[in-house]
Structure formats: structure tokens, C-alpha cells
């Protein structure tokens, strides 16, 4: 079975060698063939010019001067013109269409016919002049020129085969007709060698096609990889529900704004928008309605967006804003956003009025790092929420101090042992008539020795007599 398979393979290769190669339909291969020919066709014409000059030198003392001057001159002029045309006038491979490149390949194949016939006829005509040395030299010139042309046309196998057939077949027949055994042997040897060269050139061309095809496939895979990478990056940087930039982008843009503003000596502000009555809508009407409400909130915020603003969804019912400007501009934008989100949202048969609370901070007064700016805007938002929903607040360090004190107080109240730490004190009141005293509760928090702190969050006063 192995020997039979090998025999079939050899037979198929033998038949494939004699089969005329078709033109490729692959656009990438066609363009690659054109690019290779644009580099090599000028070399082919250079070979023809050298051959014409060599013929003049060989037969200058044997052939008529008129024949040498006119014939060789015509060959040299035409070859030079065609060389310049390919070097200067033919478009680059990246500037030609596939159809034009295909037409150029076919024209080049057809152009081989008159060139091969003309040069071979010229060589046969000169064979009648000169002695054995000149005849041997012209025979060698014909073979070497054919080999050079085949190499230059290696990326256009149709033209290479035409050169082989149009030169070597008449070449062998001509020397057979002359009857010189030495030249007949040279002719047959040249025919066999050039035939093997055609086989090798066919192998080279097939490898060339495989290389171009693999490069094309690799380029397509790279494009697909780049597309998937871009999609994944977009997914990683985009909120899936609203299509807005997400928290990650928001923080990256904040870092970029810090660097840019620090270099330019400019300021910008950061805002956090929190929807006020979103949770009841989401709980009562369901997540589908809640999601649609978030989408419409995002659309309203984007309708207020300026090209220099960054509007992102931070998560849940929170949105973030980064914009150039100072505190006054932040307040103005906050008012605009509050009015926009105060208008009812119509979703299906229902209308929802939610409103929003907004906390702002500015760079550099409200912080010099992304973490500080974000936390300080959140402080301002917390202040709005703790004082009743709706409105805008600008961060200040005094505000942060108050919030921190209040938070610490509430935390201590949660963990305190009020039965042992709470005490009642009586204090005379000079404003009361008749004389009375005020009763107040005091909480010893244990942080200071022999001291007591008034408990504003849990104190009460009432008159006693």
C-alpha cells in the first residue's frame, strides 16, 4: 500500500507539472504577485539590455553594422522604456486595486510572447555571421538570458513557462536542424536544466502562495483578536445597563484630570449624584422598571453632558460627574441636574418623581488625590442625605469635621452601656420665675477622666419646680 501510494503521488506530481497553472483568485496572492513583479520586472529588462549589449560586442566585427545598430538599439530603447515604466509609472502595491493588478499580470504574461520571439529570432539571424566562437557565445547568451527571465518571472509561473516553451523548444529544433552534435548536446542539456528550473520555480511559487495565505489568515486572526480585545475593553469600561462609563473609567478619568489640572494650574470638580426615591420604585414595581428608570436617568444626565464633562454610573442608583470649573460652576451644574431629574419619568403606564441629592468637591481645595476627592464628594452627599433628601452640598473640611464628630458620637451611643454611663444632673435656671431648675442627662464616654459630655443626640430639658 505504501509503494502504491508513493507511485500515485509521483504520477500526480508529474501530471501537475505539465498542467498549465491557473491564475489565482485570492486577492492577497494577486497583490503579492504584483508587488514581487514590480521589483523583478525591471531586473528582467536589465537582463535583456545586457544581452543586447553583449551581442553588439560579440558581432561588431562580423555582422553588418546597420543590423547591429538598428536591432540592438531598438531592443535597448524598448527595454529601457519598459524598465522606467515599471519603476516610475506603475502604482505601488498598496495603491492598486485587485482587478488592475490581475490585468497587469495577464498583460505581462502576454508581453513575454513578442519579447521572446524577437530576441530568439535576432539570435538565430546572427548565427550565420561569425565563426564557431561567436556561435557558441550566442548559444550561451540565449540560455543564460532564458534562465535569467525565468528567475525574474518566478512569481508569475504562466509567464515563466511561456519563456521556457518559446525559447527552449525552438532553440533545440534550430540546433537539430544545423546538425552540429556539440550544439545539439548543449541545446538538450539546456532544455533539461531549464525544465527542472521550471519545476523548482513552481515549488517556490506554491510556497509563496502558502506564505501569503498564512499571512492573510494571521492578519485576519490578529484583526479578530484586536476586535475582541476592544470589545472586552469596552465591556470592562462600560456599564452594561446604561451604556455609560463605569466606576473604573470614572476613577481613571479623575486621575487623568488631576494630572492635567496640576500641570495647567487649573481646577475641576467631582460630583456624586444619588437618586432619592429610587429604592421604593425598585422594590414595589420590580427590577425591570427600576432598570428602565436608571436608563432614563442616564439619558437625562447625558443630555446635559458637555464634551469636557465625564458622566458615569458608579453603581446602584449613584452617578458620578467630573467637569472643569470651580465651586460656583459646580453649584450651577448641581441645580441644573436637580431640575432635570425632578421632572417625572414616564415608564409604561406609570410616572415616577424621584429627585436626587448631589455632593460636590473641587480640586485642589477639596483634595489632591482621586481617593480623597471621591470620599469628600461622598461626605458632601452624606450631608445632603442626613439633612433631608434633595439638594446640593459642596464639601468643606469644617463639614467633614462635623460629620466625623457626629459619626463618632453615634458610634459611641451604639456601643455604650447607658445604664452605667448615663447620669442626671440638676442645674438652677435664673431665667425661670419662680425659681426652678433644669434637668439634663449627661453621658460619661470614658475618654476623659472626671469629665462628662453633653449628649445632644439624646438630651432633653424640662422645667422642674
TrEMBL record:
Gene3D superfamilies membership: 3.30.70.270
Protein name in the entry: GGDEF domain-containing protein
PROSITE patterns documented for this protein: GGDEF
Keyword Endoplasmic reticulum: no
Alphabetical list of SUPFAM superfamilies matching this protein: Nucleotide cyclase
Record organism: Croceicoccus marinus
Start-end of Polar residues biased regions: 448-465
Transmembrane segments: 43-60, 66-87, 108-125, 137-156, 168-192
InterPro entries per UniProt: DGC-Regulatory_Protein, GGDEF_dom, Nucleotide_cyclase, Rev_trsase/Diguanyl_cyclase
One Pfam assignment: GGDEF
Keyword set, alphabetical order: Membrane, Transmembrane, Transmembrane helix
UniProt keyword Transmembrane helix present: yes
Amino acid at each position: 500500500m505504501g509503494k502504491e501510494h508513493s507511485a500515485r503521488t509521483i504520477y500526480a506530481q508529474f501530471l501537475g507539472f505539465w498542467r498549465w497553472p491557473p491564475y489565482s483568485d485570492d486577492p492577497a496572492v494577486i497583490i503579492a504577485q504584483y508587488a514581487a513583479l514590480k521589483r523583478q520586472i525591471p531586473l528582467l529588462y536589465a537582463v535583456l539590455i545586457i544581452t543586447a549589449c553583449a551581442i553588439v560586442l560579440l558581432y561588431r566585427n562580423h555582422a553588418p553594422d546597420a543590423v547591429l545598430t538598428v536591432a540592438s538599439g531598438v531592443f535597448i530603447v524598448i527595454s529601457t522604456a519598459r524598465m522606467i515604466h515599471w519603476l516610475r509609472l506603475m502604482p505601488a502595491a498598496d495603491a492598486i486595486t485587485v482587478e488592475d493588478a490581475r490585468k497587469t499580470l495577464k498583460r505581462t504574461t502576454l508581453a513575454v510572447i513578442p519579447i521572446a520571439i524577437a530576441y530568439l529570432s535576432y539570435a538565430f539571424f546572427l548565427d550565420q555571421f561569425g565563426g564557431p566562437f561567436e556561435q557558441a557565445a550566442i548559444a550561451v547568451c540565449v540560455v543564460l538570458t532564458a534562465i535569467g527571465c525565468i528567475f525574474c518571472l518566478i512569481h508569475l509561473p504562466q509567464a515563466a513557462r511561456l519563456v521556457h516553451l518559446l525559447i527552449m523548444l525552438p532553440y533545440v529544433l534550430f540546433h537539430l536542424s544545423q546538425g552540429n552534435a556539440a550544439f545539439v548536446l548543449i541545446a538538450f542539456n539546456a532544455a533539461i536544466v531549464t525544465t527542472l528550473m521550471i519545476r523548482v520555480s513552481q515549488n517556490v511559487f506554491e510556497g509563496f502562495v502558502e506564505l501569503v495565505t498564512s499571512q492573510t489568515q494571521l492578519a485576519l486572526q490578529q484583526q479578530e483578536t484586536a476586535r475582541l480585545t476592544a470589545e472586552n475593553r469596552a465591556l470592562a469600561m462600560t456599564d452594561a445597563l446604561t451604556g455609560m462609563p463605569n466606576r473604573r473609567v470614572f476613577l481613571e478619568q479623575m486621575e487623568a484630570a488631576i494630572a492635567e489640572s496640576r500641570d495647567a494650574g487649573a481646577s475641576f470638580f467631582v460630583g456624586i449624584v444619588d437618586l432619592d426615591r429610587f429604592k421604593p420604585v425598585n422594590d414595589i414595581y420590580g427590577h425591570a422598571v427600576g432598570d428602565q428608570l436608571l436608563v432614563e436617568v442616564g439619558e437625562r444626565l447625558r443630555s446635559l453632558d458637555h464634551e469636557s464633562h465625564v458622566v458615569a454610573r458608579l453603581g446602584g442608583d449613584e452617578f458620578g460627574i467630573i467637569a472643569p470649573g470651580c465651586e460656583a460652576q459646580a453649584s450651577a451644574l448641581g441645580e441644573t441636574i436637580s431640575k432635570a431629574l425632578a421632572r417625572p419619568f414616564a415608564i409604561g403606564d406609570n410616572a415616577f418623581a424621584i429627585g436626587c441629592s448631589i455632593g460636590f468637591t473641587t480640586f485642589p481645595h477639596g483634595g489632591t488625590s482621586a481617593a480623597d476627592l471621591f470620599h469628600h464628594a461622598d461626605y458632601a452627599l452624606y450631608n445632603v442625605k442626613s439633612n433631608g433628601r434633595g439638594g446640593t452640598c459642596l464639601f468643606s473640611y469644617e463639614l467633614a469635621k462635623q460629620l466625623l464628630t457626629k459619626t463618632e458620637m453615634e458610634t459611641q451611643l451604639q456601643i455604650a452601656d447607658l445604664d452605667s454611663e448615663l447620669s442626671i444632673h440638676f442645674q438652677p435656671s435664673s431665667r425661670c420665675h419662680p425659681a426652678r431648675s433644669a434637668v439634663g442627662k449627661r453621658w460619661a464616654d470614658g475618654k476623659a477622666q472626671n469629665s462628662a459630655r453633653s449628649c445632644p443626640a439624646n438630651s432633653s430639658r424640662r422645667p422642674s419646680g
